[in-house]
Structure formats: C-alpha cells, structure tokens
Please model this.
Amino acid sequence: MATASTSRDPLDHADFGTFQPATGVHIRYAHVPPASDAPPRGQLLLLHGRGEFIEKYDEVIGELTARGWAIWTMDWRGQGLSSRALRNAHKGHVDDFEDYLYDLDAFVTRFMSPDPTRSPCVILAHSMGGHLALRYLARHPGRFSGAVLSAPMVGVHAPLPEWLMELLLGAAVRLGLGGLYLVGDDHGPEDRAFHSNLLTRDPARFQRTQARIDENPQLAIGGLTVGWMSAALRSMRRLFDEGAIEALTTPVLMVCAGHDQRVANAPAMELARRLVGGRVQVIPDAEHELMMERDDVRDRFWALFRGFVDEVAPRVR
Model:
C-alpha cells in the first residue's frame, strides 16, 4: 500500500455533492470511481469516526481505488462540511445516534443501491463509524457482503462505570446542559500537537490531517459535548441488548488497536463472540487510528482487510 508521501490527491477524481435527509440538515458526500487502470472490484462504503472528514481519508481512498473499489463516503452531520447543530460549530453534537442512522440509511438508499448478488459491496468503518455500521447492519441484513471495522466504538475508557455515566449525563441533558463541553474545548493549539495525541504514532499522517484543517478551518471540531456522550452511551448499550447484535448476520471483522486509549477493546471482543459471522483481530502495538498509523501497522491492517474481503466478497467473474 502507498505511504504518506503519495503526491497525487485521489480526491481530484471525486464527485462531491450534498443531500438533505431531513429538513434543515445538509450532508456532504463524495463518490470516487476506481482508478482507470484498475479492474473493477465492487462498491465500498467508507464510514468515518467522530470528528473526521472526507479529506482525512485521501490516502486510504487512493489505496482502495487503486485496487478497483468505487468509494462512497460522507461527512456525518455535526462534522466535516455537513450541517452542525449548535451555534458553536466546533461542537460536533447530536442529541441521538438515531440521527446518524437516519442519514446513513438515506445515503445508502439514495446513492448506492447495494446488491451483493450482482457486485461485491462492503463497508469499511472506523471507531464511531464502526459502531454505527453494526447498528445499521443489524437493521438491514443482506445489503452488504461484509464489513471491516477499525477500532469500533462499542465501549469507551471512562472514569466511571458506563451505566453510571449514562445516568449522570442523561440527568445533565434533561437540565438543559447537553450542549456544554464534557471533554476538551474548541479545536486549538493543543489539538495540533503530535507529542500529546492519542490517535497515531505517525507524525507525517498526523500533520497531513492538520494541514487539511489549515486549508479549510471549517473542518475543525472540538471536544465531546455532554449530549453527544450521553447519546453515545445509550447507543452502545443498545448494541448489547438481548437479541440486538444477534440480528446481524453479515460477516464482520473487527480489528482492534492494542494500545487504544480512546475505545475499549473488551466489549468489541464480546460482541464478536456473539455475532454469527463475527471475528476479531488485535494489532498489538497500534494506537486508535489504524488506517492513519505507521506503515508497519497499516500493512498488517490491509492484509487483514484483503484476506477477509476476498473471502466474503470475492470478485465477480
């Protein structure tokens, strides 16, 4: 796979647009066709983590299109260049994760029309995107051939038990405090410091993300709001409700980062055991952003991706 020094921007070949899944909400999306010299491989839905945006995945998109994948991706509401809910645009806020799932279903239905019986259709999702992919696939069996989830957010590192956090944050939301920061502040100099980041050990890829924000400061996002974290905890709990994850029959590979300081790995392993087609792999010496990590980590991640996808979504000949 390519390294961070890739010179050509694969997004030069992207078709960008917006759609309106709900009144007053505009979602920005992109479609990137396969590289012209690559044999067609299928459709891939790329779902980002919290605070991310399409441009952050330029290298990943270039690698995938070079292998024949047609990419569909979007900025979640509350981040990137999609609509933001609060006056302070740095607060990437939603009241309920159902909003994300509504937008996702509208996007897939309107633009992708996936049909695994005609062409391979897979999901590649990171962190919050992985969480939402699990909930989406449980509701829509048969739409995709498989899903690879990078560091899926199905549990978090928290100072209190998650049930207690959910209780306290829910009370704060009911008091009208949902729009306040729980962790962090507006995007600032501390977010630009590589030495204190908890996401990647690769300085070049970290700085590329910061450069994208410099080019367009509207891409920046700050810390977690009380309401967003309350919504996240409710949504994660629903994944563990009896019968919820068992409804998901699509093959899923979860790849966890051994040094992850953002999401907890044990819940992902528990869910993988409950999934009919669930598997889990851990890359021991990796931080949270596996696709933005150093080349040795990324090589292992892509090897796992290719092996799984070739099995569950073979090329149509």
In short: The beta strands are 15-22, 25-32, 42-47, 69-74, 121-126, 146-150, 181-183, 224-225, 252-257, 278-283. The chain has one domain: 10-312. The longest helix spans residues 295-312. The domain at 10-312 is CATH 3.40.50.1820 (Rossmann fold).
